[in-house]
Amino acid sequence: MVPPPPPPSPLESDPDEMRRFGYAVIDALVERQRGLRDDVPWRGGSRRDLEPLLREPCPEEPGDPDAALRRALTEILPRAGRIDHPRFFAFVPSSPTWASVMGDLLATGFNVFQGTWLESAGPSQVELVVLEWFREWIGLPEGAGGLFTSGGSAANLGAVVAAREAAGHPERPSVYFSDQSHSSIERACRIAGFRDDALRRIPSDAAYRIDVAALSDAIARDVAQGRTPVLVSANGGATNTGVVDPLPELADVCEQAETWLHVDAAYGGFAALTPRGAATLSGLGRARSVTLDPHKWFFQPYETGCLLVRDPADLQRAFHVLPEYLQDVELGFEHVNFADRGLQLTRAFRALKVWMGLQVHGRRAHADAVDKGIELGDVAEAALRAAPEIEILSPSSLGIVCFRLRPEADGVPWPEERLEALNRGIQDTIVAEGTAMMSSTRLRGRYALRLCILNYRSTAADVRAVVERVVALGRERVGIVEG
Ligand SMILES: Cc1ncc(COP(=O)(O)O)c(C=O)c1O
């Protein structure tokens, strides 16, 4: 006699209810996308407002899924940046395609364990395939490989640890990066156990590119003092300015010093898909490791980072540990266990979203969208240059341009504090009124407004509208101040 089916777990969902709720979620996502352009690019909220709204005891008993979805859609999710809004030009934007979002959903729904080949043969093969596409695009030699990571920070950490091991984990290491490098490099060094006295922040030149002569001197000085250079981290698109370090020269220096050249191309690397981006990134393929962040300029949802190394054995050496309870997962070298290449044992199947985006839209559409970002950076610069009171602090490079209003009083520029107050005020207004999401930085100590234009939805009209508004606000304020 067949035993009666056990009562379903209270955590189980009925298939009809799964469909109904799933469609409701999809409908909400589609509506969000449809209304994105007419929405504001950013909305925040103070802790004082959010505490009473969301602070509550954890529900002990089941609740209504529709009510939970409604609350998520009205109380939680709207109070955030719309990072994929066509006028979100702050920090480093991200604009995933729907195909990639669906790929991510699929990977989550199938709950793939992408740590070992045994648990995820098909997914692991796809990760190898997508990494191979990336390898070709950025010009690393055959045999190079790596893994998908949570983001650029995790990829940079992987590179730093692999380089440290490749150098024999020396007693007195030194690591080199520019004063324009992303903070994740310094953080990675700290996590990897390098003390402050091992870090060499090399000055950048007038164009914000690392000073190669200063780097060579620093390496020579360290070697003379018995230190071991472990890694040089170059920028393949610096976060501040989009500027690319002189990669061929750096490759020469590293070759001579027998030092690991890492290129942090987290945001800029996919520019290699376009002829002008490839020219800017020339030399990238000579790196020993490269960080890429598909969730930045390759139209993927968070979290999608990537580390490629010339020789994946460098990652194995740094990360492979085989405990007895995983003895079943060693299937031979060609069956890659991605857990052996990085920090995570349990990993999501991140490659699927990238694969899905490329299956649906193809490589060319992705490349064209990257090229459009480069073009719109140039559009922004041209529009800014048309206003005489604008000072370009760093010209358009890989979709980023930095500038400020710099009015003069009787032919004399305003003092720095006054310029900062003026520009900060303009930025605050642009964000508060919902024209755009824009952020600032500091270049050589000067307060700089910064546009980072990477979204495939953004148009020249979006860019010009923001520049016009910045200039108009500036004129208004200068008029008021000069009164
Ligand atoms: C050049 C660069 N490297 C690394 C990172 C860190 O990447 P993630 O935020 O994905 O960890 C960023 C982020 O903006 C970046 O611009």
In short:
The chain is built from 15 helices and 13 strands.
Care to describe what's here?
- This protein is of the alpha/beta class and 483 residues long.
- The chain folds into 2 domains: 236 residues, Type I PLP-dependent aspartate aminotransferase-like (Major domain) (Aspartate Aminotransferase, domain 2), CATH 3.40.640.10; 123 residues, Aspartate Aminotransferase, domain 1 (Alpha-Beta Complex), CATH 3.90.1150.170.
- The chain has 15 helices and 13 strands.
- Strand 8 and strand 9 form a beta hairpin.
- The chain starts with 14 loop residues before the first helix and ends with a helix.
- The mean pLDDT is 97.
Describe the SSE topology.
Elements: H1 15-35, H2 47-54, H3 65-76, H4 98-110, H5 121-138, E1 145-149, H6 152-166, E2 173-178, H7 183-191, E3 199-202, H8 212-224, E4 228-235, H9 247-257, E5 260-265, H10 275-280, E6 289-292, H11 294-297, E7 305-309, H12 313-319, H13 351-385, E8 390-397, E9 400-405, E10 408-409, E11 412-413, H14 416-432, E12 439-443, E13 446-452, H15 460-482
Helix pairs in contact: 1-3, 4-13, 5-13, 6-7, 6-12, 13-15, 14-15
The structure holds pyridoxal-5'-phosphate.
Pyridoxal-5'-phosphate binds next to helix 6.
